[in-house]
Design goal:
heterotetramer; A mainly alpha; B alpha/beta; C alpha/beta; D alpha/beta; B: alpha/beta; Glutathione S-transferase Yfyf (Class Pi), Chain A, domain 2; Rossmann fold; 4-stranded parallel beta sheet; 15 helices; C: alpha/beta; 4 strands; globular
Chain lengths: ~190, ~300, ~170, ~675
């Protein structure tokens, strides 16, 4: 296609393997938003977000917290009468906004994901303590102590790892990843 | 003896250790061997899909390929891992280009994905592979009158599309009845617990869990049974935080279905990792004692 | 266009579905490759394998057979019979070294002008990529004495004379 | 052979001339062998164009005619008529489609012109092999069978009967009336369904020209337009219609009740010997064998004991009866099924007591229904004060039915109105995706409901639950939905939920299409011959469709289609004989090897085998001309008239005229 793909197209292009219909097929029935358990915390309901994507309101969409609120429980995807894979579309938006480095102020999601990925590239396994710093500071003092309290309890019950786990063939693993994305910006 | 390539997943190593222990114990009783996949790597959770889809598929594919090599079906006890593996496998089989790209990366670890291994959730192994009759036959200490919530959570079933089963599944209930417990008709058994949000969107996650706990209390359930470490941690470990946030007084034990099955098989609680929960599951235990005396 | 190879494709379209689909494609002004030349038959079930062979031998680079979707045949199940014949024909053509893309079976209902048009475009490109079908070289070339070669047996109505003339 | 072919190339204004060099093509055609004359013309279909053809036939003695213009589906008839006018057999004509298949699909003038030549050359080569043919005359049996006694079938039956033609009306249930008989009021005029339906039912029951066969099912259909033979099973009623007066004493006296799943939608009971509803036509009751104590345990016979007629009308030994009907045409009006709401578990139907389907609600509000018109909850006494009506249950949903069921919006509005009428002050919520009210007086009805202060929430209900989360939700059903006009998720607590399920094709519509040799679409609805111009005919001659079996429809549309189908049939009957395309297969007995391959090929069993002479023969009247047998015949002894091998083979040669020289480089 010679012409530059519109926003909706760009988002769909980030859905490598989803079998759902394109966002253009949305009939704005609101089943997704009616189903969504997190809808209350989104500044825009998923349905509205899709409408705005189709309208090409890129900046407004990326400024929204909606897709970062998605718990990827796939309830919308399962129920959508237009067979649109909404949860995957939310993933696509996350990827898009991280790729363009454009997202709402003060969101933990992006930083967290980034750290998480780095961690896995490093060790091949996830390890909670590494993650803590990514969000703990953005918490208010009260939350901080609550988290700390929970953590301590878990520690006492022997449910928190002390040493970071790592896989054996880490070198191969890294090179494997290297064939998909440039490691430079991750490690 | 049935064998499976067992993919514990990161959380079962520590925070959900009890799930791991109880899974091993109970399956052994059922003549099923879970052979831990050698050198498995993180499935990428949800976060990976935020960054790079292809990479996420590759991570899952590595595990799938290793399972293929040992020629066993892959079993994941964590719904998140299960969903990632299951759909990675599905997508790669449907989309040769994607598979080619991923296999190109796998070469670096001398692996190849061809889609030979099936991916199963641990609870599927109990319900479909072993079968409820087999399980019944092993029950020595039925959890009589124990009101248990069969909490499916989201990713065991979704995003599959066979609606009757996705919106109104019954297999968890069946399993609980098989071990003598009394499954509660819990309206939110398929509602998401917000596991993936607990860090990135704490308040949302907490209030989601709160709704679940509230309706669990309304249903007069004694305990919630889960089949996913994320759900367990979310529903249990954060109760005290929820109580502080919302001034509630929840004290609802949340255990793994394997722990309940184990108890019904008469396996000592300790070996099932019972005792490591923050909200003590003693009520469950006391029920067992009771049913013991009855037998 | 004189530069680029323009394949000639003979299309056998059934009167009820695919021919009407082609009509619809026209009425809705869908633009697609003009390389397919349609012959109307009442049912795709009428398409005798010898028609296909004839077309290929007479210089067509490909043949498209189009009918109603299975289960929607105007004549109950004519298209199912087409399907069976088609798979046999494919095997034969394969033995003769004729690429599978050159003979294609397409389902298009009377309302699916776009589908038919797309199929023609796709097939045209595929055949263009394969280049001209040189029947002589491909089929007779490897030393079959013309006249009592394979084709006459397989296409009963063809007299040896008709074969000579190729 | 030499023929004098006239070739006429049409400009079709600029439609063709724009991309095809018409003049050049005509000039080229002139030089082709066998071509006597070739002309181009602005509009061949105009009277001038036709006159030109006729003139040339007369003046220049043309023996064949080729017109290169639009699709034969457009104007083949026109030009055939022209040939006939000039005394040339209409089948010595052939058309080349250089518009739909050529000038309209490309902008490449050179390519289009080349293709036009090819298509015309093909037509020329073909037409010289054409044979003069005579259309096949078929006599039309004046009686007609109508399958399905709903409003569509009833309307069709009355139209024909009143026109003086005999009708067999076959109905699966014990009474005619169909879904309409179950309804309370009808939108938008709100006249009572029974009041307008009953008189027509009675008329059917009494009409001298209508043979009413209720409690009967079609089992086999043979034959073709004009002469169908239909086998109908008349199920045993165990009531002798010759003596029964329909007094109903047996029903009164029958000691056993069962839940009426069909007519009362499971909300009410009926006796084991029953009439679906008081105004049933015919009035004779039926014994429900599965539940009858006599049939189960051999005693009771209350009905027989109390039957006042002599001889006694109750006959426990009655057997199913097989009838063979001779009819000329068949009208299918088999209606629809209601989508099973259990398939959408999140709406809780079957799990949550106070979730009802539209049909259940119709029975609830129906004055003649189980609650004599009182709107109550499942406990059959509590009156709801808030009601949620959920649209598009199984419609407009790719997981179930993609199509819009057309009537749900309107009857949902009707429900809302009835609630306002019966329960003053009740809160009524309509959950809709789009309010679809096209139709006379429909939008006005919507306005009326807006005035009645119905709540309209634009959003497809996501789920119905009984688990209270917020104050005010205890003991209620909560409908969770996004109010898309506000962009907020809302939870609406109500006492009663009414689901408006999709209209779907009958569960057995596919078997029916096989039985009648016609088609049904992906959703199981019967396919009409043309979606716009021929909505009641099917691709099978002599078989017509009317009502919801063709697609979701409301009452006026069904009635209209019923009448339309009858008009089509009446037309044929009054003509007495019809002429059909002589496109038929013929077997040359000399050449036939008797291998019988064709016998199994024919979808119409039109080919019989003569054991004695060991040859097969085509029953011309049964043959529909598909040509499958022709293609299958290994001894090439079957000819498909107007689609013969040499016609098609020479068309192939013609169409490839420019590439036939193996080494020729494409132009």
């Amino acid at each position: 296609m010679a012409t530059k793909p519109d926003f909706s197209q760009e988002v769909s292009n980030l859905l490598y393997a989803s079998e759902g219909n394109p966002l253009k097929r949305c009939i704005q029935c609101g089943t997704c938003s009616g189903t969504c358990p997190v809808a209350g915390f989104m500044d825009l309901t998923p349905r509205r977000l899709i409408a705005m994507i189709n309208a090409g309101l890129k900046d407004e969409v990326l400024a929204s917290n909606t897709f970062w609120c998605c718990a990827s429980c796939y309830h919308c995807t399962v129920r959508c009468p237009s067979n649109i894979d909404i949860a995957e579309a939310m993933y696509a938006l996350k990827r898009y906004s991280m790729w363009k480095n454009q997202y709402q102020e003060g969101l933990i999601g992006p930083i967290f994901s980034e750290t998480f990925v780095k961690m896995i590239v490093k060790s091949g396994r996830s390890y909670e303590p590494v993650l803590a710093p990514t969000y703990i500071f953005s918490y208010g003092i009260r939350e901080f102590f609550q988290e700390a309290y929970t953590a301590t309890n878990l520690m006492l019950k022997g449910r928190l790892p002390v040493l970071p786990p790592r896989i054996k063939r880490l070198e191969n693993f890294r090179r494997m990843i290297g064939r998909i994305i440039p490691l430079g910006d991750l490690t | 003896m049935k064998q499976y390539a067992y993919f514990p997943g990161c959380s079962l190593e520590k925070i959900a250790l009890s799930y791991h222990l109880s899974a091993i114990e109970t399956t052994r009783k059922l003549d099923v061997e879970l052979k831990e996949l050698d050198d498995w790597n993180c499935c990428g959770a949800t976060a990976y899909f935020h960054v790079d889809e292809l990479l996420a598929y590759t991570l899952c594919a590595r595990n799938l390929a290793m399972a293929e090599r040992v020629g066993l079906d892959l079993v994941a006890p964590c719904s998140g891992c299960y969903k990632n593996m299951y759909f990675t496998s599905a997508h790669l089989q449907r989309d040769p280009d994607l598979a080619e790209h991923v296999n190109f990366a796998l070469e670096e670890d001398n692996l190849h994905f061809s889609g030979k291994t099936a991916v199963r959730h641990l609870i599927e192994v109990f319900v479909n592979e072993v079968g409820l009759d087999e399980i019944k036959s092993k029950v020595s200490h039925p959890l009589r009158d124990l009101r248990v919530i069969p909490y499916y959570g989201c990713q065991i079933l979704r995003p599959r599309k066979d609606h009757e089963n996705v919106e109104e599944p019954q297999f968890f209930e069946g399993l609980l009845s098989a071990i003598g417990a009394d499954p509660v008709d819990y309206p939110h058994k398929l509602r998401c617990c917000g596991g993936s949000l607990i860090i990135t969107n704490r308040l949302a996650a907490l209030s989601m869990v709160r709704n679940l706990l509230q309706s669990a209390v309304d249903c007069e359930a004694a305990v919630i049974a889960t089949a996913c470490p994320m759900c367990q941690v979310n529903l249990e470990c954060y109760q005290q935080q929820i109580n502080q946030e919302f001034g509630t007084k929840f004290f609802m034990p949340v255990v793994y279905f394997t722990q309940l099955v184990g108890l019904s098989f008469g396996i000592p609680p300790k070996r099932l990792g019972i005792g490591s929960e923050l909200v003590s599951a003693t009520p469950v235990l006391s029920w067992i004692q009771k049913s013991k005396q009855e037998n | 266009m004189s530069e680029q190879f323009e394949p000639v494709i003979v299309g056998f379209l059934c009167n009820w579905c695919s021919y009407r689909a082609a009509d619809l494609a026209g009425t809705s002004r869908i633009k697609y490759a003009p390389n397919m030349r349609a012959i109307r038959v009442m049912c795709s079930g009428r398409v005798d394998p010898q028609f296909v062979l004839k077309a290929l031998r007479e210089g067509a680079d490909g043949v498209m057979i189009a009918g109603c979707h299975p289960g929607e045949c105007h004549y109950v199940d004519g298209n199912i019979k087409t399907l069976r014949r088609f798979s046999l024909l494919k095997r034969l053509l394969d033995q003769w070294g004729i690429e599978p893309e050159r003979v294609q079976l397409v389902w298009a209902s009377a309302s699916e002008g776009n589908i038919l048009a797309a199929a023609v475009d796709r097939m045209t490109e595929q055949v263009r990529a394969l280049g001209p079908l040189r029947w002589k070289e491909t089929v007779w070339g490897d030393g079959y004495p013309s006249g009592n070669g394979h084709a006459p047996e397989l296409a009963p109505a063809e007299t040896p004379a008709a074969v000579e003339e190729v | 052979m030499t023929e004098k072919v006239g070739v006429y190339v049409c400009h079709c204004g600029t439609n063709i001339a724009k991309t095809v060099d018409v003049v050049e093509v005509a000039r080229w055609a002139e030089d082709q062998p066998n071509v006597e004359v070739a002309r181009d013309n602005k509009f061949m279909c105009s009277s001038l164009g036709q006159a030109q053809i006729e003139e040339d036939i007369r003046e220049r003695g043309l023996t064949r005619v080729v017109v290169a213009s639009c699709s034969p589906h457009m104007h083949e008839k026109t030009f055939r008529a022209a040939c006939e006018q000039a005394g040339l057999n209409p089948f010595l004509f052939e058309m080349a489609n250089i518009r739909e298949h050529d000038s309209w699909i490309t902008e490449d003038r050179a390519a289009a012109t080349l293709k036009a030549k090819a298509l015309i050359k093909g037509a020329i080569e073909r037409v010289v092999h054409h044979q003069p043919l005579e259309p096949v005359p078929v006599d039309i049996n004046p009686s007609t069978m109508i399958v399905g006694g709903g409003i569509a079938g009833i309307s069709a039956a009355l139209e024909l009967a009143n026109a003086g033609y005999h009708v067999y009306l076959v109905e699966r249930e014990p009474s005619i009336g169909g879904h309409m008989a179950q309804l309370d009021k009808t939108f938008p005029t709100l006249d009572c369904s029974a009041c307008i339906l009953t008189p027509r039912m009675v008329e059917v029951g009494q009409h001298p020209n209508i043979t009413l066969l209720t409690w009967s099912e079609v089992e086999a259909v043979d034959g073709y337009l004009g002469n169908f033979t239909v086998s109908v099973r008349k199920k045993a009623r165990f009531v002798d219609e010759r003596y029964c007066t329909g007094c109903g004493i047996c029903i009164e006296k029958c000691p056993h009740k069962v839940v009426d799943e069909i007519f009362e939608a499971g909300l009410g009971n009926r006796k084991v010997i029953y009439r679906p509803f008081p105004q049933a036509v015919p009035k004779y009751p039926v014994i429900d064998k599965e539940h009858c104590v006599y049939f189960l345990r051999g005693k009771c016979k209350a009905c027989q004991i109390f039957c006042p007629t002599t001889p006694n009308s109750i006959d426990f030994d009655q057997q199913d009866e097989m009838l063979k009907l001779q009819v000329g045409n068949i009208i299918l009006a088999t209606g629809y099924d209601l989508f099973d709401s259990r398939r959408i578990p999140q709406y809780g139907y079957g799990r949550l007591a106070n979730v009802f389907t539209s049909l259940e609600f119709e029975r609830l509000v129906n004055a003649a229904g189980p609650t004599s018109g009182r709107i109550v909850l499942r406990d059959m006494q509590t009156q709801p004060n808030s009601i949620g009506i959920v649209h598009c249950v199984g419609s407009r949903d790719e997981n179930y039915h993609v199509y819009c069921s057309k009537v749900c919006c309107m009857y949902s509005l009707k429900f809302a109105h009835l609630v306002h009428e019966r329960i003053p002050g009740a809160e009524v919520y309509n959950f809709y995706i789009d309010m679809r009210t096209p139709g006379k007086g429909y939008e006005e009805f919507y306005h009326r409901l807006l005035d009645e202060e119905t709540h309209f929430i634009r959003g497809k209900a996501a789920e119905v639950t009984d688990s209270a989360r917020l104050p005010g939700e205890e003991g209620k059903l909560i409908i969770q939905v996004e109010d898309t006009l506000i962009g907020k998720q809302r939870r609406i607590p109500v006492d009663m939920v009414i689901l408006s399920p999709a209209m779907e094709a009958r569960y057995d519509s596919r078997e029916v299409t096989k039985l009648f040799r016609m088609g049904c679409d992906f959703d199981g609805f019967f396919i009409e011959r043309h979606p716009k111009l021929d909505p009641v005919a099917t691709m099978t001659e002599g078989i017509y469709i009317a009502g919801a079996c063709q697609g979701p429809k409301d009452i006026p549309d069904s009635v209209a289609q019923g009448a339309a189908a009858s008009a089509r049939v009446a037309g044929l009957i009054s003509r007495g004989t019809v002429f059909m395309e002589p496109v038929r297969a013929h077997i040359d007995a000399e050449a036939c090897s008797g291998c019988r391959i064709c016998n199994s090929m024919c979808p119409y069993n039109a080919i019989i085998f003569h054991e004695d002479e060991k040859v097969s023969e085509v029953i011309t009247a049964l043959c529909q001309g598909c040509g499958t047998c022709v293609a299958a015949c290994p001894s090439a002894s079957i000819t498909g008239a107007h689609f013969t091998n040499d016609q098609i083979l020479s068309q192939i040669e013609g169409i490839l005229w420019d590439v036939r020289e193996p080494l020729a480089v494409p132009v």
